[in-house]
């Protein structure tokens, strides 16, 4: 169908004019192609305009792609959802549970059991992030353990679980460990595996863990919200030469490249004749896999306000599939029940509505996460798409 590009262009242009972002890109796709590709604003103040070739840090939008890699190995029988992670990764078997503090000294104990592969995919393993868990933030402060932004592998191997597996959904480093698991099982480095089995087959040629100098020239800098509500470039940067390829946040790419991934998921795991997952596996990934493990009632509470705002509880029924957050009921004038979605800390947001057959993404590079202006822009873009589709 033909989209009214002017409506969506106006939403992006307004986000720049209102000072929500320095610049941004968006893509909307269906099973047959790209319905909309647009951009507004500048890569940096006074710089070149954002375009289809602008590179973005995908941040946690990497997780969906990394999860597909693990699902491929499950399809092949090389991995099982119910495998114990500790039995496959000796490094993981050393992890303890943080059980409080004696003064500044962390109290650690063995976990009640090993997390399962499915619990990595559903964020119910007991792992967490230092910027969303107060106890883990205290652990890093007390021990000096590196955090994931450093790119050091010790940010995984020297950091404990926050609780025993299977107790509650808790956002964390699960997909980083999933990437290490893919390496272990496949015998390939994670970047080589993704290139051969996911990115290459989908034609996502401008997506990488290791940007070339030419790609870095096209990379939008990270901007941070200032006390007066403005934006300024920040020196915060992901490690250029990380010790491991992060399945949780490490990919860089363009809007249109991620649009190809969205289309493959809408098409049941196939794009342009190249199949990366079987239809049945995609159905499984987009089905409730928490098995009664609760989502937190207070949303995501920030412990590092420079990185993320508090994220309130989702106002509709929700759960988690294998690598995707799930909406379990129709959102009026927007995504339908069964939609998978997620986001990236630099205020990137995507959705994959397999019921309607449409998906989209908005990309910028702004901190902290869940910026009110960017969230409003993302919701406005989605609402405009469904208005075009005639869905109330």
What does this structure look like?
GO terms for molecular function: hydrolase activity. Residues 8-369 form the Beta-lactamase-related domain. This is Serine hydrolase domain-containing protein. By secondary structure, this protein is α+β, with helices and mostly antiparallel strands. It has a domain at 53-292: 3-Layer(aba) Sandwich (Beta-lactamase). It has 13 helices and 16 strands. A 7-stranded antiparallel sheet has the order 2-1-15-14-13-12-11, sandwiched between helices. A 3-stranded mixed sheet has the order 7-6-16, with no helix packed on it. Strand 4 (97-102) and strand 5 form a beta hairpin. Helix 2 (62-75) packs parallel to helix 8 (174-186). The mean pLDDT is 97.
């Amino acid at each position: 169908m033909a989209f009214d590009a002017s409506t969506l262009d106006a939403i992006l242009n307004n986000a720049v004019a209102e000072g929500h972002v320095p610049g941004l890109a968006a893509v909307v796709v269906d099973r047959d192609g790209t319905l909309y590709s647009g951009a507004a604003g500048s890569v940096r103040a006074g710089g070149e305009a954002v375009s289809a070739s602008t590179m973005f840090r995908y941040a946690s939008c990497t997780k969906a792609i990394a999860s597909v890699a693990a699902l491929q190995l499950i399809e092949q029988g090389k991995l099982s959802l119910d495998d114990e992670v500790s039995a496959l990764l000796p490094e993981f078997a050393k992890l303890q549970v943080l059980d409080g503090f004696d003064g500044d000294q962390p109290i650690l104990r063995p976990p009640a059991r090993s997390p399962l592969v499915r619990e990595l995919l559903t964020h119910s393993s007991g792992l967490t992030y230092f910027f969303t868990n107060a106890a883990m933030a205290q652990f890093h402060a007390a021990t000096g353990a590196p955090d994931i932004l450093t790119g050091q592998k010790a940010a995984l191997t020297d950091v404990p679980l926050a609780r025993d597996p299977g107790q509650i959904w808790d956002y964390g480093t699960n997909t980083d460990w999933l990437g290490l698991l893919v390496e272990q099982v496949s015998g390939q480095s994670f970047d080589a595996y993704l290139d051969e089995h996911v990115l290459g087959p989908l034609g996502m040629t401008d997506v990488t863990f290791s940007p070339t100098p030419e790609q870095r020239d096209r990379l939008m800098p990270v901007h941070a919200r200032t006390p007066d509500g403005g934006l300024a470039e920040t020196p915060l940067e992901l490690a250029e030469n990380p010790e491991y390829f992060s399945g949780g946040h490490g990919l860089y790419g363009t809007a249109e490249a991620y649009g190809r991934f969205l289309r493959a998921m809408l098409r049941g795991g196939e794009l342009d004749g190249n199949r990366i997952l079987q239809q049945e596996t995609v159905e499984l990934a987009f089905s409730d896999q928490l098995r009664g493990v609760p989502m937190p009632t207070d949303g995501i509470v920030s412990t590092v306000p420079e990185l993320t705002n508090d994220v309130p509880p989702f106002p509709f029924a929700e759960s988690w599939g294998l690598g995707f957050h799930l909406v379990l009921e129709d959102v009026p004038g927007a995504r339908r029940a069964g939609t998978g979605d997620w986001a990236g800390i630099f205020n990137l947001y995507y959705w994959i509505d397999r019921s309607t057959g449409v998906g989209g993404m908005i990309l910028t590079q702004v901190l902290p996460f869940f910026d009110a202006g960017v969230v409003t822009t993302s919701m406005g873009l989605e609402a405009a798409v469904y208005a075009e589709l005639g869905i109330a």
